[in-house]
Amino acid sequence: MVSRKDKFGLNIPHSAHQPMGKAVVFCCRSKMGKPVLLHSLLLSGLLLLAVLDVSLVNADDPYRFYTWTVTYGTISPLGAPQQVILINGQFPGPQLDVVTNDNLVLNLINKLDVPFLLTWNGIKQRKNSWQDGVLGTNCPIPPGSNYTYNFQPKDQIGSFTYFPSTGFHRAAGGYGAINVYQRPRIPVPYATPDGDFTLLVGDWYKTGHKALQASLDSGKSLPFPDGVLINGHTQATFSGDQDILALSTGKTYKFRVSNVGLKNTLNFRIQGHTMKLIEVEGSHVVQNMYDSLDVHVGQSVNVLVTLNQAPKDYYIVASTRFTPKKLVASGVLHYTNSKTPVSGPLPAEPSYQLHGSMEQARTYRWNLTANAARPNPQGSFHYGKITTTKTIVLSNSAPLINGKQRYAVNGVSYVNADTPLKLADYFNIPGVFSTSSLQTVPNGGAATVATSVIPTSLHDFIEVVFQNDENAMQSWHLDGYDFWVVGFGSGQWAPAKRSTYNLVDALTRHTTQVYPNSWTAILVSLDNQGMWNMRSAIWERQYLGQQFYLRVWSAVQSLANEYFIPTNALLCGKAVGKSH
Questions:
Q1: Among the listed residues 109, 102, 151, 99, the one whose alpha carbon sits nearest the alpha carbon of residue 20
Q2: I need a surface site. Which of 116, 185, 205, 562 has the fewest CB within 10 A?
């Protein structure tokens, strides 16, 4: 397989294309069901050992091999030099373009001066929380060392991201895109676009990540960010062709937009063009047209844009929402037959505010007749007819604990243990986490700190209500799953609000917003055993305690439920010296 060029002249890599010329191995099936090496460069023994780990090898699907090196670098995204985190010398990091069920073997080399991890935001890690890349599941990679991730985007399509989960590294970069394409025989509910663009948008600080982390550690909250970036810059240009034989029809391009910022909702819009929403975090949706879209922290959307306007250049805008001060990054949609540069004022943000944004969110609906990564229609799973086994109500808060700013869930502010919770669970190490500290409903008591876990059972079907009594927008993410976002509402949630739920065509996604002084309700089918992080996607709040873990468990230990611990798993804390 070779890389191909899309209509923008960008390389869309297949297995034969590897950023920075690192090691690449192509595999196929043998009659014995083991991978066959067709071509390879020199790989470390650890990488090869990870490939042969019987708990993870799936010989039915292709393998893609990567070697990424994490370093510091100095760039000036907002005009002033600052230290950032680079992957293979790139900011943002390399883009992963893969296909449903590909086996990804990624050797991550840490050349920073502190431990480091990457997490794969939105990749479900089916039966494999060992590879999730958060401190509750993995020991961080020590400086000067490496770890080889081995995972699949199992039965997934769509636009996702990766970023650092350790410390406050996320404020220094180290993030990138994961684009999961459908398998050749799986149709999508729209014509093949003429091109495909990825936009990583997010707010950004001029202050370095170490100083920001020190400020949080001292008990302060973060100030307002300094700017907004599009793919690591304040400006960017995206070029597309117009069909000169049918100007009124035009060629159509896919834009994958992800909010990789730290704090703020962003509004995305393109001057003079409407956008057709086609996919949200792996869900094909009813294809409504929008002038602009609110994209909350941690979320991703895919839209189609048709170049059917006069041949000129048009502004692309990402700007902060619901903030007294507006931060804006602007790009350019360049028609290749244009001789007219962008002109006039930037397109204005929508006039509607929080209520209008909530109304927009309610228009996002599942396309029931379309498939996603599998051939069966999305609507064949009738989630609204399933009886829930448990209701969890989660109320976020911003308490002071010992005189310092913290963030909490139901009065409990999470603190990381020195031993990953997944390892403590596997090795039966006591005293690492608590399954009783965090109640499943708000209790109104004084805020405390704990390494909190909520126990659940494999195949539970749960209702989770996020209650936000603060004046700030919230964004909640769950690793290992997507979930049905069945309801939004203002004020206090009560059981009677269930009558407003969408139990027919609510979309599934991995990150949902919760509006100020409002609630959001989701339904989750707990079909993925493991230890899974539920967290605020607003990283200051996550760092200072607005998170916990769901332990999804079955007494039946089987590969049908969960993979074995990887042979290359790093051990730390109380797990050091344990045999696996």
A1: 109
A2: 185
Contact residues for 184 (Cβ-Cβ < 8 A; gap 6+): none
φ/ψ (deg, to 5) at 169: -60, -25
Distance CA 72, CA 50 (A): 27
Q: In the chain, pLDDT over 70 holds for what percent of residues?
A: 89
For the cut 60, the answer to whether the pLDDT of residue 41 exceeds it is no
Task: Give the per-residue pLDDT at 5.
Answer: 33
SS3 category, 97: strand
d(CA 334, CA 514): 35
Mean pLDDT of the chain, nearest integer: 91
Q: Can you give 120-148 as a three-state secondary structure string?
A: EECCCCCCCHHHCCCCCCCCCECCCCEEE
> Rounded distance, CA 378 to CA 372, Å?
7
For 173-193, the three-class secondary structure string (H helix, E strand, C coil) is: ECCEEEEEECCCCCCCCCCCC
CA distance 471 to 397: 10
Q: CA dihedral in degrees (558, 561, 565, 568; nearest 10)?
A: 120
Q: Kind and range of the H or E element at 540?
A: helix 539-543
Residue 100 pLDDT > 50: yes
Alpha-carbon gap, residue 307 to 251, rounded angstroms = 6
Q: What is the mean pLDDT of residues 92-106?
A: 98
Query: Residue 370's pLDDT is what?
Result: 95
pLDDT digits (tens, 9 = 90+) for 432-452: 999 999 999 998 889 999 999
Average pLDDT of the residues in 531-537: 98
The two three-digit tokens of residue 577, written as one number: 């010296």
Mean pLDDT of 212-216: 98
Give the SS3 label for residue 95.
Answer: coil
Would you say 282 and 299 are in contact if contact means Cβ atoms under 8 Å apart? no
Q: What pTM was computed for the model?
A: 0.91
Q: Provide the 10 A C-beta neighbour count for residue 115.
A: 18
Higher-confidence residue: 112 or 36?
Answer: 112
CB burial of residue 269 (10 Å; 0-12, 13-18, 19+): buried
**Residue 391 vs residues 62, 388, 433, 441: alpha-carbon distances, Å:** 40, 7, 22, 9
Q: How far apart are CA 123 and CA 157, in angstroms?
A: 10
Q: Return the bridge partners of 159, or none.
A: 179
Least confident of 11-25, 83-97, 138-152: 11-25
> What single-letter amino acid sits at 193?
P
Q: Is 155 left (phi over 0), alpha (psi -120 to 50) or beta?
A: left
The residue behind tokens 């917003």 is 513
What's the gap between Cα 446 and its chain centre?
A: 32
- CB distance 501 to 484 below 8 Å: no
Q: According to the model, what pLDDT value does residue 248 have?
A: 65
Distance, CA of 366 to CA of 378 (rounded, Å):
8
The torsion angles phi and psi of 495, rounded to 5 degrees, stand at -50, -30
Q: How far apart are CA 325 and CA 9, in angstroms?
A: 37
pLDDT in tens, 326-358: 999 999 999 999 999 999 999 999 999 999 999
Half-sphere exposure of 394 (CA within 13 A, CB side): 31
- Taking each continuous run of H as one helix and of E as one strand, the counts in the chain are 5, 39
Structure tokens at 381: 């799973």
